[in-house]
Write the structure tokens for this entry.
Amino acid sequence: MSAFLDIAKMRYSSRSYKQTPVEQEKLHIILEAARIAPSAANRQPYIFYVVREEKLREQICSTYHREWLKNAPVIIVCCVNKTEAWTRNDGKNHGDIDLAIAVDHMTLQAAELGLATCWICNFDTNKCRNILELPENIEPVVLLPIAYPADTEKINIHLNNRKNLESFVYWK
Ligand SMILES: Cc1cc2nc3c(=O)[nH]c(=O)nc-3n(C[C@H](O)[C@H](O)[C@H](O)COP(=O)(O)O)c2cc1C
């Protein structure tokens, strides 16, 4: 019924990866999906570190101690540039919203390519900042592993673990 909904329903948080390398071409498509995302005042206030090199990947994994993460051949460290982001006149900085949209585009594009992702925000951001030598205005927000999934049986997992529309939509 909806090609988009089919892809959205394919995406899930995979926490089991094959070590198979991810093709460079597919990474480019995923990053292109981020590039075309909307952002407040079109500031596009993000930086993505596509970490593939083993030593650096190990360091990034040390900011989030989970065995499953170590298998991911690629981890994209998604950062917001706080000073580049649009700020509303009440002081609200919109950088996190912009970055979230771009990351969501990437997860959906990855799903369409048969690749696994998982949003990771519960990592040691200070340690990550030190590893990548990020300046004060660049904040690491999301670690996004990209890999071939080893748990494809979970593909429809969240069709049953979501609230009903009636519980959060109010038609007026
Ligand atoms: C902003 C955000 C932060 C998240 N942080 C983590 C995390 O640190 N570790 C983790 O394993 N999953 C994390 N997740 C994944 C959620 O647990 C997951 O999206 C949610 O349980 C729904 O499952 P699904 O992604 O399979 O549909 C995060 C998701 C979002 C959107």
Summary: The beta strands are 46-51, 74-81, 116-117, 138-147.
